[in-house]
Amino acid sequence: ISKCHALVEKATTGLENYEISDVGFAIYQFLWDEYADWYIEASKTRMSVEVESPEGARQARRVLVYVFDTCLRLLHPYMPFVTESLWQQLPTDPSHGESLMIAPWPLMDESELSSDPDAVNLFAQLQGLVRGVRNARAEYQVDPARKCAMKVLAADPQLLAFLEQERATVALLGRVKDDPVALKFVAPDSEEAKAGGGNAVKLVVGEGLEALLPMDQLVDAAKERKRLGKQLAKLEKDVGGLEKRLGSSGFKGKASAEVVQETESQLKEKKESLAQVERSLKELEGL
Description:
With 287 residues, this protein is α+β, with helices and mostly antiparallel strands. It is 63% helix and 8% strand. A 4-stranded mixed beta sheet has the order 2-1-4-3. A hairpin with a 2-residue loop joins strand 3 (200-206) and strand 4. Helix 3 (54-75) packs antiparallel against helix 4 (80-87).
């Protein structure tokens, strides 16, 4: 809600200054990058436990409707017919009104909309944590259906409590196992943190926030060795061929300087790739 209110203030100021294109793009970005990508997805964890926590599910729905209603009001000057049609489908109350066309603008006169900077900061760190996990999964080509364990180290007690409270959201968005054994949130000076993470991928999310992902749960060691072995054999063959070509007096004597330089560049790239594959195979030792 704080980010939505910040958008309202930005849109109101922008339209008053005739920054029409910038405001339209800001609304578009918020709807896709914040509302759709994050809040709708995070709300699923509250909807899924409606029986156990009906009030949490109701609150999530209220926020979803409130933010979407606000965005439709902001978008109405740009897309009057579509926004009106969507607005008419929203759950109504006596203050809803008959038409979006005559509904009040979200920010009127000199009134101020509520904002919680601490909540924005905490959620931003949760987003950073999830992005880090997603990037690691992509880098190691983890099967999307495969969930892994994770140990999160948070130095700030408030952040630690927030992440523990939002463990279902972290687990859902990061594709992490949601149980106390597999997903742990601990302080850096705790005994659990001092025990280390063994052979794990370390993610430095930000100052005072790190995560450890067990390597053996990120990859299928046997399958990965086989894949990397094939890459290794191909790269070794490529490197050998390029070295042989460059070592030939006939090649250097007949080829132009540009061709020789390009071949040397290819050899350098192949050797770098070969070194990376060798490092990856070394990391798999012991798994």
